[in-house]
Amino acid sequence: MAGDDSSAAVFVVDDDASIRDAVKSLLKSVGLHAEVFGSTEEFLNVTRPAVSSCLVLDIRLPGMSGLEFQEELAKAGRRIPIIFVTAHGDIPMTSRAIKAGAIEFLTKPFQKHELLAAIHQALDRDRAAREEEARISELRGRFESLTPREREVMALVVTGLRNKEMAAKLNLSEITVKVHRGRAMQKMEADSLADLVIMADRLKPSSRK
């Protein structure tokens, strides 16, 4: 389901002023806020607001191309859904953009409904990513509240070891292990072992792509 885009921001980077004005006017007509730029340098100088956002990016730009800029953003860890627009697209170019994570690749002159559909899809994706990041941040905060020993016990619990096995591995009494396990479960707000396993998996960097 699509979310509320009234507070979202759509960034448009195109060296054609007529395209910038047309897209900004279209977005304004449907209640979307747009910020337009004539170059990637101008876009980089703006602080991105902490709201759902996306980037409508021309392929052919002075200096760095849109595809090159997509790669630079990824390298810098600046995640933002991208919709490419171009008057000179081809299959290899489209394939490269989509494989690198672009939402859509539209050829000028594109249909208004195509651009709007792509923008709403991009904003939904960014909103979902932001919500997931917030959940992971909260989960990370709970994990950091654990003592070193509680973290050790949690790491062993999620591998499926029984209390007796963990006690032997950590050179602790079984009762002590039960205490640490209970505290870890409580601090992580896990209702079951399954919950704790899911939380541990979500805290792994490799599980968040």
Write up what this structure looks like.
- This protein is of the alpha/beta class.
- It folds into two domains: 124 residues, Response regulator (Rossmann fold, 3-Layer(aba) Sandwich), CATH 3.40.50.2300; 63 residues, Winged helix-like DNA-binding domain superfamily/Winged helix DNA-binding domain (Arc Repressor Mutant, subunit A), CATH 1.10.10.10.
- The chain is built from nine helices and five strands, in the order E-H-E-H-E-H-E-H-E-H-H-H-H-H.
- A five-stranded parallel beta sheet has the order 2-1-3-4-5, sandwiched between helices.
- Helix 6 crosses helix 8 and helix 7 packs across helix 8.
- The two termini are 22 Å apart.
What tags apply to this protein structure?
alpha/beta; Arc Repressor Mutant, subunit A; 2 domains; single chain; elongated; 209 residues; Rossmann fold; 5 strands; five-stranded parallel β-sheet
